[in-house]
């Protein structure tokens, strides 16, 4: 355990079989960190995302992928060849003990192996199965091959993200990094699964869930769809702020120490009272320009002065260090944010106060590493990392032997024939 | 939650409205502007009920408390501790509803030394590290062209709610969930986080962020947190259709040497592409600029949908960059899956609403109805759900409990009052 907290997580008692690649292993991680018994079922030799970097000390190895480590905390792991009859047989036995099967194989793959929802649910009517695929189980693009980049293109993220033409004339639409197509679909998968669990709590019935990465991404562009439906206009990309059908004042400004600050709202959202608060503070640095002029106590003047306020702020920030500007603004209730990197996030005292930096033991290495912890503090049932990601087949013995009760001789046979 | 069938009551006050009700950019031409006329509010609030009530009035506060006693869940995203100041904190509400699930969604959370710092999407994205992950190297960050963490903060709110409900169903115990919008963003930067905490790799480095590439040309070949290292991996201009080609782009990613070979064949096997320097990933990474220029010469001759179809048929990963218009009008997959559902809206007419991105038991999960007009269901909720008499309701409207005394009443508000008066 990584903290002294003795309470059990909110999903304690739920067993999940997770057969996912990059698409939905984040969904499995969330459930595992929240107390579910998530068993990651990998092909013998390990799941392909173990080959995605970065790697511990940059040494590529399936047991050293930091990417895999992050997305698979708190899970147990077994290996199983689902293409072999013996493997399928074991999987059926395992699924009889599970409340949820979470999978991201190509549409129809598990059904073709005789492991589809109808088959598995026959003797386990409460079973929930969630299939996460690029485009869902049907439709003209069903079998298209994708990646994170491709989803951010088709889903509309790229059409909204990039630079003002004035900043970089030939900039392409930009796909933000970090694998967020998979995060987005994992969030929606999690919600669908929880909805199905809630339904099961009252009816005893399980169900089949068909989640589409493309639909999830397409749903996650905030105003772009509404703007088109309302006005027929397609949004333009703006540096560091919302895409919009028209031009808007900048909200991202350079500071005098090489940083950038984001002010969330452009100057046009200010009121006379707030202009005064801002002006008095900036005046302390001799940088208020005309903000304390009486004319800005007239809401009508404020309304049309958005670009001017943005210019005054730009000049102010150009003469301020990042943290002083950001924290000073926040102390006065301006919802500003410093553009931080991991260098600044690591060790942030506020995050320390919330026990966000979680030490996780890697006994096989005799080391302990700091992981990102919970985004939410549950007061009665904690979100916490209970263990590092499983090694390849780490729990084969414990689960196949101990819990399913397969005889040792069978396990040896399965191992030598490559089924586990 | 409303789309999944929950009875969601949106508690509002006309003097301090939801920002999305004020978004004048999504009021269609010909529709009278106002809090009930914005497309963006409509999409985000479909299927909820609307209650207008003044919690700063003692009778309003009392009514809210009565409402809590008959509710499973309270969700709030005020700045930290505002609800507690109003006497509506978790401890207080457990006296009315011991098993209440109470989800707070402040920017920095309810605890920690900067709990009172405020955020909305852009600031939360900046502070969490998400903004810095997006853009071209050597330039200021491009960031996210929408409030990703408003969307995602909302999703975490739903996730926390359903998780705590699951716990309550199993144990009978409610709880307080203290969610931080900003921290949800850090949870989404895991690989970069571990690369720093374990490998001490700084994010301020040459070639990072790598635009749409996995590795920026000329920069050291290190992992940049966008899946497997691959090349080509970029956005390419396609044949111009309209709007100066603003969104005529297609992305192509070859995740293996085989996929690259398929692309070369699809392009008709031009001599430049058959050069030995492109045979290996190392070579393609080293010569990315030249390779991408060559690919773009080809992509510029083909429309983006046609190009993606051709690539996919040949085993090459490619998708069009789709604008909002594209997704609504031109995307055959979203159309097939019924992403948009027309629902009659009192101000907007027949309006397309986005559904949930999944099917449950084979059925598309669509919105359950239009969004509430502000205060639309006040008399119904107070009367039917809480048993408040017509006389008390009318008195409440007189006293400014259910509608601000200085704000003109919309016709539907006046009509609801008139109906109570007739009872």
Give keywords.
heterodimer, A: 420 residues, alpha/beta, six-stranded parallel sheet, elongated, B: 423 residues, 18 helices
The number of helical elements of chain B comes to 18
Widest sheet, order of strands of chain B: 3-4-5
Order of helices and strands of chain B: EHEHEHHEHHEHHEEHHHHHEHHEEEEHHH
User: Percent helix among the residues of chain B?
Assistant: 25-40%
Helix content of chain A: 25-40%
Mean pLDDT of chain A: 95
Question: What general outline of chain A do the C-alpha atoms trace?
Answer: elongated
Uncertain segments of chain A: none
Strand tally of chain B, please?
Answer: 12
How many helices of chain A?
18
Structural class of chain B: alpha/beta
Q: Strand share of the residues of chain B? A: 5-15%
Shape call of chain B: elongated
Instruction: Report strand % of chain A.
Output: 5-15%
Strand order of the largest sheet of chain A: 3-2-1-4-5-6
Distance between the first and last residues' Cα of chain B: 34 Å
N-end to C-end Cα span of chain A: 28 Å
Largest sheet of chain A: 6 strands, parallel
The chain pair with the largest interface is: A-B, 153 and 154 residues
Tell me the layout of helices and strands:
The complex is a heterodimer of chains A (420) and B (423).
Chain A: E1 15-19, H1 25-33, E2 37-42, H2 66-71, E3 76-79, H3 85-95, E4 100-103, H4 109-112, H5 117-121, E5 128-133, H6 148-154, H7 157-160, H8 180-203, E6 208-212, H9 213-218, H10 223-231, E7 236-238, E8 241-244, E9 252-254, E10 260-262, H11 272-283, H12 299-303, H13 306-318, H14 322-331, E11 337-338, H15 342-345, H16 349-353, E12 357-362, E13 367-372, E14 376-378, H17 396-403, H18 408-416
Parallel strand pairs in A: 1-2, 1-4, 2-3, 4-5, 5-6
Antiparallel strand pairs in A: 7-8, 9-10, 10-11, 12-13
Helix pairs in contact in A: 1-8
Chain B: E1 9-12, H1 39-44, E2 49-52, H2 58-69, E3 73-76, H3 82-85, H4 90-96, E4 101-106, H5 121-128, H6 148-171, E5 175-180, H7 181-187, H8 190-197, E6 233-237, E7 249-253, H9 257-266, H10 271-274, H11 281-286, H12 288-299, H13 304-313, E8 317-320, H14 324-330, H15 332-337, E9 340-345, E10 349-354, E11 358-360, E12 363-364, H16 378-385, H17 390-398, H18 411-422
Parallel strand pairs in B: 1-2, 3-4, 4-5
Antiparallel strand pairs in B: 6-7, 7-8, 9-10, 11-12
Helix pairs in contact in B: 5-6, 5-7, 6-7
């Amino acid at each position: 355990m990584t903290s002294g907290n003795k309470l059990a997580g909110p999903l304690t008692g739920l067993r999940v079989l997770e057969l996912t690649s990059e698409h939905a292993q984040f969904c499995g991680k969330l459930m595992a960190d929240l107390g579910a018994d998530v068993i990651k079922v990998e092909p013998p030799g390990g799941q392909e995302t173990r080959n995605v970097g970065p790697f511990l000390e940059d040494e590529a190895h399936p047991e050293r992928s930091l990417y895999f480590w992050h997305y698979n905390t708190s899970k147990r792991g077994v290996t199983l060849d689902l293409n072999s009859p013996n493997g399928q047989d074991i999987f059926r036995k395992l699924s009889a003990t599970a409340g949820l099967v979470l999978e991201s194989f190509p549409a129809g793959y598990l059904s073709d192996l005789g492991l589809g929802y109808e088959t598995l649910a026959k003797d386990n009517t409460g079973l929930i199965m969630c299939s996460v695929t690029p485009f869902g189980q049907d439709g003209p693009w069903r079998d298209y091959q994708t990646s994170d980049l491709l989803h951010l293109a088709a889903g509309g993220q790229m059409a909204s993200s990039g630079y003002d033409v004035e900043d970089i004339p030939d900039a392409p639409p930009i796909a933000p990094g970090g694998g967020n197509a998979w995060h987005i679909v994992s969030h929606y998968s999690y919600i669908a699964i929880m909805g199905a669990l809630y339904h099961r709590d009252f009816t005893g019935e399980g169900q089949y869930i068909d989640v589409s990465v493309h639909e999830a991404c397409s749903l996650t562009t905030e105003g772009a769809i509404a703007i088109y439906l309302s006005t027929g206009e397609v949004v333009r990309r703006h540096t560091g702020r919302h895409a919009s059908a028209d031009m808007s004042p900048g909200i991202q400004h350079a500071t005098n120490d090489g940083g950038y600050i984001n002010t969330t709202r452009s100057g046009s959202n200010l009121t006379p009272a707030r202009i005064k608060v801002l002006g008095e503070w900036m005046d302390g640095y001799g940088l208020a320009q005309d903000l304390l002029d009486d004319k800005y106590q007239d809401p009508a003047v404020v309304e049309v002065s958005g670009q001017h306020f943005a210019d005054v702020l730009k000049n102010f920030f150009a003469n301020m260090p990042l943290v002083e500007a950001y924290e000073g603004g926040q102390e006065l209730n301006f919802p500003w944010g410093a553009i931080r990197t991991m260098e600044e996030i690591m060790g942030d005292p506020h995050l320390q106060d919330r026990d966000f930096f979680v030490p996780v033991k890697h006994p096989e290495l005799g080391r302990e590493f700091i992981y990102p912890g919970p985004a939410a503090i549950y007061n009665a049932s904690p979100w916490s990392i209970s263990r590092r990601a499983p090694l390849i087949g780490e729990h084969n013995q414990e689960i196949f032997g101990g819990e399913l009760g397969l005889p040792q001789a069978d396990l040896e046979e399965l191992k030598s024939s490559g089924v586990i | 939650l409303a789309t999944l069938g929950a009875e969601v009551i949106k508690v509002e006050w006309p003097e301090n409205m939801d920002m999305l009700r004020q978004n004048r950019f999504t009021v269609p031409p010909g529709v009278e502007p106002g809090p009930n006329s914005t497309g963006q509010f409509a999409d985000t609030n479909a299927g909820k009920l609307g209650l207008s009530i003044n919690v700063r009035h003692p009778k309003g506060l009392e009514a809210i408390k009565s409402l809590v006693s008959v509710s499973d869940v309270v969700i709030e995203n005020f700045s930290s501790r505002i609800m507690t100041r109003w006497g509506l904190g978790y401890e207080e509400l457990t006296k009315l509803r011991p098993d209440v699930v109470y989800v707070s969604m402040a920017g920095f959370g309810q605890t920690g030394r900067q709990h009172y710092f405020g955020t909305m999407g852009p600031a939360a994205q900046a502070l969490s590290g998400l903004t810095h992950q997006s853009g071209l190297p050597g330039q200021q960050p491009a960031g996210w062209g929408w409030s990703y963490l408003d969307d995602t903060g909302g999703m975490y709110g739903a996730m926390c709610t359903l998780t705590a409900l699951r716990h309550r169903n199993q144990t009978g115990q409610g709880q307080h969930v203290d969610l931080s919008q900003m921290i949800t963003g850090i949870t989404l930067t895991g690989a970069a986080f571990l690369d720093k905490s374990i490998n001490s790799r700084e994010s301020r480095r040459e070639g990072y962020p790598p635009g749409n590439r996995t590795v920026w040309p000329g920069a050291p070949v290190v992992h940049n947190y966008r899946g497997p290292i691959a090349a080509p991996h970029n956005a390419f201009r396609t044949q111009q259709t309209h709007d100066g080609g603003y969104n005529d782009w297609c992305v192509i990613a070859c995740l293996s040497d085989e996929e690259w070979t398929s692309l070369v064949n699809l392009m008709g096997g031009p001599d430049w592409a058959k050069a030995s320097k492109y045979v290996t990933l190392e070579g393609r990474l080293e010569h990315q600029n030249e390779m991408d220029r060559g690919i773009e010469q080809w992509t510029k001759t083909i429309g983006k949908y046609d190009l993606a179809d051709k690539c996919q048929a040949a085993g090459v990963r490619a998708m069009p960059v789709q604008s909002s218009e594209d997704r609504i009008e031109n995307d055959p997959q979203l159309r097939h899956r019924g992403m948009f559902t027309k629902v009659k809206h009192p101000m907007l007419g027949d309006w397309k609403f986005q559904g949930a991105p999944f099917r449950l038991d084979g059925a598309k999960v669509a919105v359950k109805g239009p969004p509430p007009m502000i205060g639309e269901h006040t008399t119904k909720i107070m009367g039917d759900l809480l048993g408040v008499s017509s006389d008390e309701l009318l008195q409440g409207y007189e006293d400014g409990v259910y509608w601000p005394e200085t704000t003109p009443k919309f016709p539907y508000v006046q009509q609801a009052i008139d109906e109570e008066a007739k009872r």
